[in-house]
Amino acid sequence: MAPTQRQGLVLACMSVCTALVVGFVAAINLAVPKLAASSLHPTSSDLLWIVDAYVVVFACLVIPAGAAGDKYGRKGTLMTGLAILAAGATLSGAAPSVAVLLIGRALTGLGAACVLPNCVGVLLHATAPERRRHALAVWAAASGIGGVAGNVGGGALLTGGSWHSLFIAVALLAASCLVWVAVAAPRSARQPRRLDGPGTLLFVATVIALLIGIIEGPEQGWTSTLVLSAFAACIALGIGWVLIELRVSEPMLDPRLFRNPLLASASIGMTIAFFGNFGLFYVNASLLQYGRGYSVLQAGLGIIPLTIPLLFGTRHVPALVTRIGVPATLTAAFLLTSGGLLGLSFATTMAYPVYAAWLFIIGLGIMLAGPCLTAEIAASLPVERAGVAGGLQSATRELGSALGVAVVGTILTAGFTQHLPETLSRHSPVPRTAAEALALDPTDHTTIIDAFVNGADTALRAAALITLIAGALVVTGAANAHRRGGTAQS
Questions:
Q1: SS (H, E, C) the chain
Q2: Which of 57, 97, 141, 483 shows the smallest number of beta carbons within 10 Å?
Q3: What's the rounded Cα separation, in Å, for the pair 472 and 106?
Q4: How many Cα atoms are found within 13 Å in the side-chain-facing hemisphere of 434?
Q5: How confident is the model at residue 464 (pLDDT cuts 50, 70, 90)?
Q6: Residues ≥6 apart with Cβ < 8 Å to 114
Q7: Pick from 59, 68, 156, 165: which is nearest to 110 by CA?
């Protein structure tokens, strides 16, 4: 096989594996209404944890999993991750309770953490230097397309079966990808590095504490002992993580790397881009089903306008970045994303073509941000640290996804409960999901759905504002970094 053909086959394989693990994040959102009405009887915070357990473990372990790939071999770690993903999805599909489902979701998150960074590592080592920017742009597009493929594929599966069918399909796809990787992916040199156990544990604990505070805030109260303790623990653990990483000889992720302003701004930018992206996915799936009365499949298909820029425009982004520069590209990306989220919040009850137009605008923002930020992070670290570079890209993306689901989900719940009819707002406990409210009072369907739509609109506007403000800070940092010159590692 010619080198160019082999590189193309590896790129296709890594793109499919990436689309699988990213699409799984999006697909589960479509199952939320079915899960809420299932025999598992999850609470609103249970639903958030069902969605976020995967992303939390994914985000926490993706950097150490990238480092493990550098040490033990990227192909082997990638294949191990696909096997774990298949096992976790199988357990989730057979779960008799919320607790078992959460264990399965966490296990699939571990598998995904081994998959995504090592896709980048395998791809960088299998691709000639002059083709790497193009390959990374295609890989970044696969990430965005994966989210939409998860919506469409998940919608098709959930239309024809129960929520269990979604997990069974993911298990089968992961097993198929495992065989493909075994055949197509080349082996790369291992790096003699020690794994940083204490740093990994503190990093995991820091992220989990942060998300406990955000997710449990609406349920327990923002001044409750649990929530305040979680935020305090997050700060203390984060400080501890930095101090340990500064002292060990081979840290999981050296905080000093972020002295490189390009790496710092690109990492924050990736977090913000996926915050808006997956905050939208969490709201959109239920909004289309409850607000517009769409079936699960219709809701999955309803997100397709967002994919059009990703499918047809991503390959032009590297040339655009070369022509107008990173700061200008990111400015357009964050303005389009935040503007699209804001416009969408006013179009939830309008005709679908209007709604679709705002989705298209959000897709333009994602199309510009993904390849640009991916290339910036990859260029900031040497190629022998490809696993860590991939881990950092994946960690920022998944942390942004987890925060997007958590923040948008909590604002949605708060807005929903605030607009409930008086008979339900006085109920003890107050229903915190549309499924709970409709089960208690099916005769007041219109008022309950209006309350849900109001909560969703508020959540989308909050996501738009956060994306705009944080995006402005990212663009300022990127502009200052480029003025000082280069993407060389500090």
A1: CCHHHHHHHHHHHHHHHHHHHHHHHHHHHHCHHHHHCCCCCCCHHHHHHHHHHHHHHHHHHHHHHHHHHHHHCHHHHHHHHHHHHHHHHHHHHCCCCHHHHHHHHHHHHHHHHHHHHHHHHHHHHHCCHHHHHHHHHHHHHHHHHHHHHHHHHHHHHHHHCCHHHHHHHHHHHHHHHHHHHHHHCCCCCCCCCCCCHHHHHHHHHHHHHHHHHHHHHHHHCCCCHHHHHHHHHHHHHHHHHHHHHHHCCCCCCCHHHHHCHHHHHHHHHHHHHHHHHHHHHHHHHHHHHHHCCCCHHHHHHCCHHHHHHHHHHHHHHHHHHHHHCHHHHHHHHHHHHHHHHHHHHCCCCCCHHHHHHHHHHHHHHHHHHHHHHHHHHHHCCCHHHHHHHHHHHHHHHHHHHHHHHHHHHHHHHHHHHHCCCHHHHCCCCCCCCHHHHHHHCHHHHHHHHHHHHHHHHHHHHHHHHHHHHHHHHHHHHHHHHHHHCCCCCC
A2: 483
A3: 34
A4: 26
A5: very high
A6: 61, 65, 68, 69, 77, 78, 80, 81, 82, 84
A7: 59
Q: How far is CA 215 from CA 191, 208, 221, 402, in A?
A: 38, 10, 10, 10
User: pLDDT band for position 266 (50/70/90)?
Assistant: confident
Give the mean pLDDT of 114-125. 84
Q: Which two tokens stand for residue 88?
A: 């976790």
The yes-or-no verdict on residue 6 having pLDDT over 80 is: no
489 pLDDT exceeds 60?
no
Please answer whether residues 23 and 163 qualify as being in contact, where contact means their C-beta atoms are separated by less than 8 angstroms: no
**Tokens representing residue 248 in the block:** 């060990």
CA distances from 197 to 151, 194, 245, 465 (A): 36, 9, 11, 37
Contact between 350 and 477 (Cβ < 8 Å): no
- The answer to whether the predicted template modeling score (pTM) of the entire model surpasses 0.90 is no
Residue that is written with structure tokens 């096992």 in the block: 87
